[in-house]
Amino acid sequence: MNIIVVKDYNEMSYQAAQLIAEQITKKRNSVLGLATGSTPEGMYKELINLNQEDKVDFSEVITFNLDEYYGLSPENPQSYCFFMWNKFFKHVNIKKENIHLLNGITENVNKECKQYEDLIKKSDRIDLQVLGIGDNGHIGFNEPDISLNTQTHLVNLTTKTIKANSRFFNNVQEIPKQAITMGIGTIMRARKIILLANGKRKARVIERTINSPITTKVPASVLQLHNDVTIIADQEAASKFIS
Ligand code: GLP
Predict the structure, then answer these.
(1) Can you list the domains of the chain with their CATH numbers?
(2) 139 CA to middle of ligand 1, Å?
(3) Which residue among the candidates 98, 127, 138, 234 is catalytic per the annotation?
(4) Model pTM?
């Protein structure tokens, strides 16, 4: 694992955007795997700036988002689809047909997962996958104790995740208890992975991701098996790892 420790959130966002821009410069039609959550928001702002300054061109780029709450429609402001359009897609020159998002209100969830997985395979492979990390080490919505070779699938969220994400909802009853997520197997097939983490809240889990024996109890620790992972962590998130 390549670990980059940066000063703060802004620096983390800047570095992540630079890696994505480099990837697109190398390959105009790169396939990107994208994440949501508060962590990558700054990275999206940086990418929007780079696009507006004509330093990165999304016109050939293809994207697949990692996950979606099951039961939330794309118009729901808490859905990841809404997040992606508002915080990123509508501000850059990406083609609508090149954007892939999971449908949280699909009538046939197994079919939705299979189709998504097939589309990823059809696009060859994800060139660069961006990840955040949950407090319990989940990546996407792959919660602890998930099996290692999962494809896109429906998951039950743990109480810890529901609680952690409750800050985005008016009350805990509104939070979906299930989600659709790319599996660990899907993520591990990406050519390159960058994982972002900031703040003290992530210090313990970053330490475990890097140092603990590989265990499904900390899903992100499985990334130790991938040959091209870069973790960009700010000093707070890296504090337990450094000391
Ligand atoms: C959610 C998402 C993850 C994300 C995690 C951390 O559970 N499914 O993809 O990494 O939250 O979120 P945050 O970046 O807000 O800490």
Answers:
(1) 2-242 (3.40.50.1360)
(2) 8
(3) 138
(4) 0.96
